[in-house]
Amino acid sequence: MTATENVRQVPQSHNSSAELIVPRHGVVTLFGYGIQVRVDRGHLLLEDGIGPDRRYARLPRVDHGLKRLVVIGSDGCMSLAALRWLSDQDVAFTMLERDGKVLAVTGPVRPSDARLRRAQALAHSSGAALCIARELISQKLAGQEQVARGKLDHAAVGQQIADYRLALAEAETIDTIRSLESQGAAAYWAAWHDVQVLFPKKDLPRVPDHWRTFGTRKSPLSGSPRLAATPANAMLNYLYALLESEARLAAAALGLDPGLGFIHVDTPARDSLACDLMEPIRAKVDAYVLDWIMQQPLRREWFFEQRDGNCRLMGSFAVRLSETTPLWARAVAPFAEWTARQLWRRRQSAQNIAPSTRLTQTHRREARVAVRLQTDLKAPRLLNLCRGCGKTIRDGRSHCAQCAVGGATERLLDAARLGREAAHSPEARAKRANRQREHARARSSWTAKSLPAWLTPEVFSENIQPLLERMSNSAIAAAIGVSRWYAGRIRAGRRRPHPRHWSILAKLVNISVGVSD
Q1: How far apart are alpha carbons 231 and 304 in whole angstroms?
Q2: CATH number at residue 247
Q3: Does 46 have pLDDT greater than 50?
Q4: Is residue 416 in a domain?
């Protein structure tokens, strides 16, 4: 049976309703199903999406603005011509699994110096490994101390981390350095435990209770940071994956072996040197996530929870986080070049020519001081979301117009409800009963003989009552011991107070002698 006309397939390039993919901060992230990366007549064609919601891009070789291509998932295809196109344009390619694991990283091919790699392999015997490990962990602890003191407001934890950092100077083995780093991490993440994670008020009924705080860095599903159970930890895992890919690219660009590390134990499951170079930058990633969750709410639609409780990022939110990739590339570059210089200096060779600075261009900048080769990179602006509905709003506001009006009305209703509840509480009822008994005793003990002869009902109505209108309700209530509501009715002439109060009210309005005298 042939396909009917209403299901005729139309090439994606002719689908005018497809959303255009535009590189933001030099990064494009593809996700979903049926991902395609191919070349057509010199243009790089990109396509992704879920179901009928597709995205499409056609990038030329000139002025394309692409520096990083990130693919999440493995449902799709990528041509060899596309890899060649990326290589010709010095565009790095990163492929991540849906759980954030780095599957493949490739970047511009640079010449490799065998002497540098030989020095890297002999780093443990030459003493370079200990020196590099001590400095990288020292920078990591310094960053964690700054976050603990400045953002988490935990001076005690900051001091504890500072003590571990001071102890690094006396560390003589890699194992000692690992132990100090582990103890600092334990104190550091303990300070994160009770950090509140904001969600819009509209999303709260759909947010699991354990998502509303950071919790522990170790997931209850794996006993390690993998398989995050909360949104904040899922954000950290994804950003760490981006950082790991940039560390791999930095090591390869300098001619180092990304898998031959110094701090992390060599295993087939990771590139140890890339993990080493990540350590000083982790605190920067932590600060970025901490600023986000403490300043802006997270939308529930950015995350989904699997049946086992694993919290994952939605593709649209992962695209937003991928825009930070240039930040981590810029941050890891100086540490990668410093590591290469330390290895080069430990070589047993008469040549002391310093290795190239391909990442930071430091040597070229020193030779041409007047030429600015790099511009300062800033973090992508955080979305300013309404605390009520989660809609994007202007900076400087906390609620959209609709939620601001509704919130004010709701606050007034809550205040009125609380006022009614307080007025009918047992304490309030007992207070009113005592006051009524006091007034009853005062009325029963009062006699007309105690009233001055000149103070007649006519005098009160014609001379005292008009002057009470100039007094405040509080002054009248305090003088005769009644409520401000009752004092207001006396002031307005709607109620005549008991004659025992007339003398006090006469003094209040400065009438102390009979007006008829």
Answers
A1: 9
A2: 1.20.120.920
A3: yes
A4: no
Residues 175 and 304 both lie in one domain: yes
CATH number at 86 reads 3.100.10.20
- Of the candidates 168, 170, 167, 149, the one whose C-alpha atom is nearest the C-alpha of residue 159 is 149
Are the C-beta atoms of 342 and 354 separated by less than 8 Å? no
| Highest averaged pLDDT of the listed ranges 312-326, 368-382, 500-514 | 312-326
> Helix crossing, 174-190 with 128-150: angle to 10°?
10
Is 21 part of a structural domain of the chain? yes
Measured at the alpha carbon of residue 270, what is the angle toward residues 264 and 276, in degrees to the nearest 5? 35
**Do 40 and 140 sit in the same domain of this protein?**
no
Tell me the residue range of the domain where 30 lies.
15-106
Would you place residue 2 in the very low, low, confident or very high pLDDT band (cuts 50, 70, 90)? very low
The answer to the question of residue 306 being in a domain is yes
Q: How far apart are CA 320 and CA 145, in angstroms?
A: 28
> For residue 186, what pLDDT is reported?
94
Q: Which of 71, 106, 141 is the last residue of a domain?
A: 106
**Does 341 share its domain with 269?**
yes
Separation between Cα atoms, residue 305 and residue 319, nearest integer Å: 19
Residues 238 and 184 in one domain: yes
pLDDT at 439 over 90: no
Query: 371 falls in which pLDDT band (50, 70, 90)?
Result: very low
CB 308 within 8 A of CB 221: yes
Q: Which residues of 452-466 are buried (b: 16+ CB within 10 A; e: fewer)?
A: eeebeeebbeebbbe
Query: What does the H/E/C string look like for 70-93?
Result: EEECCCEEECHHHHHHHHHCCCEE
Mean per-residue pLDDT of the chain: 83
Does the pTM exceed 0.85?
no
Residues 337 and 454 in one domain: no
Number of domains in the chain: 3
How many residues can be counted in the chain?
517
How far is the C-alpha of 235 from the C-alpha of 228, rounded, in Å? 9
Confidence label for 372 from pLDDT (cuts 50, 70 and 90): very low
Question: Please, are residues 47 and 71 in contact by the beta-carbon 8 Å criterion?
Answer: no
Which of 264, 282, 280, 149 shows the shortest CA–CA distance to 217?
282
Distance from C-alpha of 405 to C-alpha of 386, rounded to nearest angstrom: 13
Specify which residues 70 forms β-bridges with.
29, 94
Is residue 454 assigned to a domain? yes
Quick count: other Cβ atoms within 10 Å of Cβ 484? 14
Instruction: Examine the fold and report which residue of 367, 384, 410 is the final residue of a domain before the chain moves on.
Output: 367
* Residue 273 · residue 251 · CB < 8 Å: yes
Say yes or no: 163 and 300 in one domain. yes
State the burial class of residue 448 (Cβ atoms within 10 Å of its Cβ: 0-12, 13-18, 19+). Answer: exposed
